[in-house]
Specification:
The complex is a heterodimer of chains A (567) and B (196). Chain A is of the alpha/beta class. Chain A has 12 helices and 19 strands. In chain A, the strands form 4 sheets. In chain A, strands 1, 2, 6, 7, 8, 9, 18 and 19 form an 8-stranded mixed β-sheet that branches. In chain A, strands 5-12-13-14-10-17 form a 6-stranded antiparallel β-sheet, covered by helices on one side. In chain A, a hairpin with a 5-residue loop joins strand 15 (436-444) and strand 16 (450-455). In chain A, helix 1 (18-29) packs parallel to helix 12 (544-563). The model of chain A has no long low-confidence stretch (mean pLDDT 96). Chain B is mostly helical and 196 residues long. Chain B is 54% helix and 2% strand. Classes of the chains: A alpha/beta (567), B mainly alpha (196). At the A-B interface, strand 11 and helix 10 of A face helix 4, helix 6, helix 7, helix 8 and strand 1 of B. Strand 11 (353-356) of chain A pairs antiparallel with strand 1 (183-186) of chain B, so a sheet runs across the interface.
Chain lengths: 567, 196
């Protein structure tokens, strides 16, 4: 194994997903020569979306899961709703990339293994955080105060939304701020009926169409949605936002971008003389060759957990417990959203109504608990929101419920089944010191890097909240007139919502946090971490939009500092 | 069994006029379907499943299961996709079916009249009645219940094979890969469900 020294870059971005793509775009557009390192395989926008528009008759085994293979090689990834034979090539192989957890306390670490990362596979729901979120820790004392407020990030939300293309409805709610929206997607007749019932029955509760990074109007050279449905197979029209369709091409256009896939970052080198990161050490995933890259700025955007794994594995005399970990908080306060809880039911009537198109979006009921002006008598702090929708059951869902066989059975399946309506909650996960990831002392991966070990579980507040999420979902469906309501509260564990956050939190106090208000490491001025690792609390809304806005904001600050000669 | 014999037997068994392309489909699979790696069917089981598939989804004003290549799909799934438990339940079910036909009609299933075949399949449906699935009932669950009785298995394989076939998707249902919009419509304006 040789070590190759390579050319100097102005900035090195680790990771090419949602956050890394944004760092690359913003840095290159400011004139910096940027190297993007991606541990996964290189793939091309459009050309390598081999599952895109694949008709059902071409799916292996009728689209059924390859159970033996999944159990053997993808036991974690195959739990993702988007995982199947049209998308498997985007996912991490669990067998080749093991990590450590107590089976009684599992953490489901869902990862992509391609250029563009999980931006190819994400759920695309985008919501702005509000001061209800940024002030939450300060208000109830869980975790430390965020070093920023809504006004600090609001212009960056706009900056991001205009580029990625977000469709949605303005609601003028202080706790779910409006953004730069394209025209909203359509809410179907049953959803409108449910909305009316809920809003009439519960003053202050609102149901809206999901705000989604799927375009309803052409924008920035990317097309509008053609409603084929399964975005996660890839969209060569670029209607949904991904790094491959959007930020990486923008960065490429500047002529300042170098992308290196199959590049596993082992650690960062710290130079005690300058007090800065001096190099990024990479192992080539194919050749196992070691390569050392240097740059003036380093943006860690490898995703929550992966970025912190790199920092924990970057030890030196100055930082024996991991780079930028003088506070001892690195790896701690790991959060997700608590989900897999809600209800579904059958909506009688509307049998003459149907829809055309596969809408890659659902409805959203914003948080209504523990808002400042309300006086809720609930037994938990913070809140939750619901995603959901209504649709007619299809042949795959109906066939076991129609008795018999033969011509009458076939005729019965020709029409869609009754309308089903469902609500699934996403609840805030409190920051907790004991919810953490660390490096295994004994287990190493195929590159010789210590494996990640998880020690995380939902706490009492999440469990109390889940109970109410389940009850309220069932109650709202009842109010809306649904029948045969079945509520559920699965044995959910962190990682399940794929909204993992924290482990390198932001804060004003270097003694209690890893990053400052600019996502800059308190202890290492040329190091920025802008993915989900930076999060100080978890809100209950989907986090990706906030990672993108924080990344763009951090780049603006870093480049200004660089140009002023700060590092 | 040679291909020519299979054609002959299938035509006899189903009473259907089989076009060469249909027979080709039954043997090799249609569309992009996978090739069977290790078939566990003998000739009788293959022919029985062919008849059962067509009984479940017969030709009406649109093609039935045989023309859509469902027999190949059933053989593929039972042979290469099923777990040991599922395969045993399925193959045992075929045995039960024949035993029932022998007892009731004095013949194996394949040589029974269509009315008796329907009665035998109805008997299998009655045997499955009341089965309670152990799979958790949440919309997120991806778990498959291996212990579903024979009737549920043959019905599911026939349905999945048929509606995911090009014929089932396009001729029986409506295949609309590029809808370009999402909106409310009246069901009577399309009259069938979308296959995708």
């Amino acid at each position: 194994m040789s070590t190759v020294e390579t050319t100097q870059f102005d900035a090195i971005v680790v990771g090419s997903g949602i956050s890394g793509g944004w760092a690359a775009k913003e840095l290159t557009e400011r004139g910096l020569k940027v190297l993007v390192l991606e541990r996964g395989k290189p793939i091309r926008h459009g050309l390598d979306y081999k599952g895109e528009h694949m008709p059902p008759w071409e799916l292996p085994y009728g689209g059924k899961p390859l159970r033996e293979l999944y159990k053997e090689e993808y036991p974690i990834q195959s739990k993702v709703y988007a995982f199947n034979e049209t998308t498997r090539h985007f996912f991490n192989n669990d067998k080749n990339n093991p990590y450590v957890y107590d089976p009684a306390k599992p953490f489901n670490w869902k990862r992509a293994d391609v250029l563009g990362g999980r931006s190819l596979l994400w759920g695309r729901q985008v919501y702005r955080w509000s001061d209800l979120d940024f002030e939450a820790n300060k208000q109830d004392g869980h975790g430390i105060d965020w070093p920023i407020r809504y006004k600090d990030i609001a212009p960056w939300y706009s900056h991001v939304e205009k580029f990625i293309g977000v469709s949605g409805e303005k609601l003028n709610l202080p706790h779910l701020p409006d953004g730069e929206f394209q025209k909203p997607m359509h809410m179907n007749v049953v959803e409108r009926s449910v909305k009316q019932s809920i809003e009439q029955h519960y003053p202050g509760r609102v149901m809206t169409i999901g705000r989604t990074a799927v375009q309803t109007e052409p924008n920035n050279g990317r097309g509008a949605c053609h409603y084929c449905g399964p975005c996660e197979r890839g969209c060569s029209a670029g209607a949904y936002f991904s790094s491959l369709s959007s930020t990486l091409p923008a960065a490429e256009k500047t002529g300042n971008l170098t992308v290196r896939a199959n590049s596993v970052v082992e650690n960062l080198e710290f130079d005690p003389t300058s007090g800065k990161v001096s190099a990024v050490n990479v192992i080539d995933a194919n050749t196992k060759e070691r390569i050392r890259f240097s740059g003036n700025l380093v943006f860690l955007c490898a995703s929550t957990v992966a970025s912190t794994q790199i920092l924990l594995n970057s030890t030196s005399e100055h930082f024996p417990d991991g780079l930028a970990n003088r506070s001892g908080t690195l790896g701690r306060y790991l959060m997700d959203h608590t989900n897999e809880v809600g209800a579904f039911g059958v909506m009688p009537g509307f049998m003459d109504k149907y829809t055309v198109g596969n809408r890659p979006n659902g409805i959203y009921i914003p948080r209504f608990r523990n808002l400042k002006e309300s006086s809720d008598s609930v037994d938990f702090v913070r809140g939750y929101g619901y995603q959901g929708g209504a649709m007619r059951m299809n042949w795959a869902q109906m066939h076991q419920q129609i008795k018999g066989f033969g011509a009458r059975f076939k005729q019965a399946l020709r029409a869609p089944g009754p309308w089903v309506v469902f609500l699934a909650g996403f609840g805030e996960h409190l920051p907790d010191k004991n919810s953490r990831m660390l490096l295994s002392k004994t287990e190493r991966d195929r590159f010789g890097i210590p494996q990640v070990a998880f020690d995380s579980a939902f706490g009492a507040n999440e469990n109390r909240m889940r109970k109410e999420i389940q009850e309220q979902a069932a109650e709202m469906l009842k109010v809306a007139g649904a029948r045969n309501i079945l509520s559920f509260n699965a044995n959910s564990s962190p990682g399940g919502a794929i909204h993992e956050m924290g482990t390198a939190r932001m804060g004003d106090d270097p003694g209690q946090s890893v990053l400052n208000r600019w996502n800059q490491a308190h202890d290492v001025p040329n190091l920025f971490v802008t993915d989900g690792s930076c999060m100080t609390s978890s809100s209950c809304v989907n986090p990706s939009l906030t990672y993108m806005a924080l990344t763009a904001r951090a780049v603006d600050y870093a480049v200004t500092q660089l140009q002023a000669g700060a590092f | 069994m040679k291909r020519r014999e299979l054609i002959h037997n299938l035509a006899l068994i189903t009473g259907a006029a089989l076009s060469p392309s249909v027979v080709q489909a039954t043997i090799n699979g249609v569309d992009g379907r996978d090739i069977i790696k290790h078939s566990v069917f003998n000739e009788t089981q293959r022919a029985t499943c062919t008849v059962l598939a067509e009984l479940i989804i017969p030709r009406t004003d649109t093609p039935g299961a045989i023309e859509a290549g469902v027999p190949h799909f059933i053989e593929l799934m039972v042979s290469d996709w099923y777990t040991e438990i599922e395969r045993r339940i399925f193959l045992d079910g075929l045995t039960t079916l024949d035993t029932y036909c022998q007892q009731q009609f004095g013949k194996v299933f394949l040589t029974c009249s269509e009315a008796d075949q329907i009665a035998a399949l109805t008997h299998m449906e009655n045997l499955a009645e009341g089965y309670k699935s152990t799979a958790p009932a949440t919309p997120m669950s991806k778990e498959v219940d291996e212990h579903v009785p024979f009737f549920g298995k043959i019905k599911e394989l026939t349905v999945v094979g048929y509606y995911t076939s090009e014929i089932g998707a396009k001729q029986e249902l409506i295949y609309q890969p590029m809808p370009m919009e999402y909106r409310d419509i009246e069901f009577r304006d399309v009259g069938r469900q979308w296959s995708n």
